[in-house]
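Bumping my old thread because nobody answered last time. Still need a sequence for this structure:
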């Protein structure tokens, strides 16, 4: 009998079914948006470099799916969780609170909005470099004085970003004109009047802006005003320029933090370490803008 048990155990090892010592982490991504996918790809690169397996879940911007995916991750034998966006992080906290599983987040604009302090919680915020963006707007389009912004009413992420922009705009010479809407239908109604009142549009990274970039750019183009953006994920939609966080590097930064957490080291809440300036050369030509010599190095065709 012992001989048969030994043979079965040996076969399990040969076929790869033996218990593995490889660490694994779960990833919960809120939706399939360029900045979030870049964040995941940067994180996944670091996991691959350290031979850490990844269990990936994407909620496709659906709140009920998000919670189901978070619960599904808890059913897996994982050693840590990476949550991408505020909504995903909140879902992970709801499911994993009280456990010792390290939680690392990425692309959370206001970590304080998570409303909880866990020793096992850390991550990388995606607070945008607003003052640098305003400096670019002043240099590239000096005629701009009034900047229009839209956000989803009641979205803590969007509301926080609007307040941060307004604070950063103090003493900049810009007037921020905001419109809060509930959904794309209300956005379509509010947009025509907004673009008539402002000299430029500035996109933030709440799901309303990211999901409806094409609509916003189309409305601004008809009004012959430029569109700037907090991040360059929708650059091909017709954004003029952006001083953007590198979301791929943000993901790598979060991945390096996860490796430390899996090794029992303390985690922290950090700011992104890499920022990129991009100017859409094609859009600049269409708008007949003369890009200053000191900015030409940032032109992307």
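Sorry it took so long. Here it is:
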């Amino acid at each position: 009998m012992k001989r048969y048990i030994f043979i079965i155990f040996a076969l399990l090892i040969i076929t790869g079914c033996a218990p593995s010592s490889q660490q694994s982490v779960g990833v919960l991504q809120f939706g399939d948006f360029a900045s979030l996918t870049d964040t995941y790809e940067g994180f996944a690169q670091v996991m691959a470099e350290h031979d850490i397996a990844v269990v990936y879940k994407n909620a496709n911007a659906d709140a009920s799916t998000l919670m189901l995916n978070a619960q599904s991750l808890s059913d897996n034998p994982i050693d840590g969780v990476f949550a991408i966006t505020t909504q995903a992080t909140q879902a992970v906290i709801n499911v994993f609170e009280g456990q010792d599983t390290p939680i690392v987040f990425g692309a959370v604009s206001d970590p304080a909005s998570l409303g909880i302090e866990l020793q096992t919680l850390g991550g990388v915020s995606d607070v945008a470099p607003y003052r640098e963006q305003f400096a670019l707007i002043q240099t590239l389009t000096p005629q701009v004085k009034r900047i229009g912004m839209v956000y989803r009413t009641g979205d803590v992420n969007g509301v926080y970003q609007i307040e941060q922009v307004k604070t950063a705009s103090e003493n900049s010479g810009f007037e921020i004109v905001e419109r809060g809407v509930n959904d794309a239908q209300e956005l379509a109604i509010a947009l025509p009047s907004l673009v008539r009142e402002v000299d430029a549009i500035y996109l933030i990274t709440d799901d309303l802006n990211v999901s409806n970039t094409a609509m916003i750019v189309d409305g601004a183009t008809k009004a012959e005003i430029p569109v700037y953006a907090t991040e360059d994920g929708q650059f091909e939609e017709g954004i003029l320029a952006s001083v953007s966080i590198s979301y791929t590097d943000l993901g790598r930064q979060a991945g390096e933090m996860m490796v430390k957490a899996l090794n029992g080291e303390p985690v922290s809440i950090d700011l992104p370490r890499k920022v990129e300036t991009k100017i859409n050369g094609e859009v600049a030509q269409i708008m007949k803008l003369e890009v200053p010599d000191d900015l030409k190095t940032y032109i992307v065709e």
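DSSP finds eleven helices and 13 strands in the chain. Let me know if any region looks off to you.
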